[in-house]
């Protein structure tokens, strides 16, 4: 069951844009298949949240050059989203408002943080803003979106998953679909558009 996009944002909502960074887009070092396709629908949500003066959060992978998740350190991923490099920049076409709250994660050598809540002050910041419900889109469905959504639900937020605004790595075929099922079963509502 997917809710049509006519469900509107309201006071107490925030939009969370997960890791829409150059390295996860086409030509990037860890390009997510179809990743570029999230930008246009996310821009529509960004415009809607901005028009209503509602908070926008942008998370970013922000790794040191020797992050332990990189192949050179024995990890699983090619080097990606190294802090301060072009690959770590938000996609230039992503229309983030100037007052977007940027949350950097996995910023030290030995810590992984797929979730925007892991090792960050995101929860405290949202509480300070009186946020109760999160609209979540971005990359990648089966890693950072999945873990961010599951953490949010555990922390007591309602979550609207923007299914047109996410794409999966699909290291194993079906990972993205399984992640969506897991988020839905944990309590996320799926929202089109
Ligand atoms: C991510 C793999 C490694 C993500 C981050 O943003 O989903 N995936 N680091
Ligand atoms: Zn990473």
Descriptive account of the structure:
This protein is of the alpha/beta class. The chain has a single domain, classed as Rossmann fold (3-Layer(aba) Sandwich). Helices cover 23% and strands 19% of the residues. The protein contains four helices and six strands, in the order βαββαβαβαβ. It has helices at residues 39-51, 122-128, 141-154, 175-185, and strands spanning 13-18, 56-61, 101-105, 133-139, 158-167, 189-191. A six-stranded parallel β-sheet has the order 3-2-1-4-5-6, with helices on both faces. β4 (133-139), α3 (141-154) and β5 form a beta-alpha-beta unit. The two termini are 14 Å apart. 44% of the residues are buried. The mean pLDDT is 95. Bound molecules: pyrazine-2-carboxylic acid and zinc ion. Zinc ion is lined by residues 61, 63, 69, 80-81, 106.
Count of domain modules: 1
Please give the CATH class.
Alpha Beta
Average pLDDT level: 95
Cα(first) to Cα(last) distance is 14 Å
- Determine the CATH superfamily: Isochorismatase-like
Elements, N to C (H/E): EHEEHEHEHE
CATH architecture classification? 3-Layer(aba) Sandwich
Which ligands does the model contain, each kind named once?
A: pyrazine-2-carboxylic acid, zinc ion
- The proportion of strand residues reads 15-25%
**Which strand order does the major sheet show?**
3-2-1-4-5-6
By CATH, the topology is: Rossmann fold
Give the overall shape: globular
Number of helices: 4
> Strand count, sense and closure of the main sheet?
6 strands, parallel
């Amino acid at each position: 069951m997917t809710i049509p996009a006519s469900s509107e944002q309201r006071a107490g909502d925030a939009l969370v844009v997960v890791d829409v960074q150059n390295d996860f887009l086409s030509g990037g070092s860890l390009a997510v298949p179809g990743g570029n396709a999230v930008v246009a629908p996310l821009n529509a949500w960004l415009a809607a949240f901005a028009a209503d003066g509602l908070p926008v959060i942008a998370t970013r992978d922000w790794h040191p050059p020797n992050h332990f998740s990189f192949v050179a350190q024995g990890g699983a991923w090619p080097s990606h989203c190294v802090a301060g490099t072009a690959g770590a920049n938000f996609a230039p076409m992503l229309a983030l408002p100037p007052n977007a709250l940027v949350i950097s994660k996995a910023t030290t050598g030995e810590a992984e943080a797929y979730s925007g809540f892991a090792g960050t002050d995101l929860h405290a910041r949202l509480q300070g803003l009186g946020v109760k419900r999160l609209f979540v889109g971005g990359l990648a469905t089966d890693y950072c979106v999945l873990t961010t959504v599951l953490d949010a639900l555990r922390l007591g937020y309602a979550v609207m998953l923007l299914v047109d605004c996410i794409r999966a790595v699909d290291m194993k075929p079906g990972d993205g679909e399984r992640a969506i099922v897991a988020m839905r079963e944990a309590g996320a509502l799926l929202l089109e558009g």
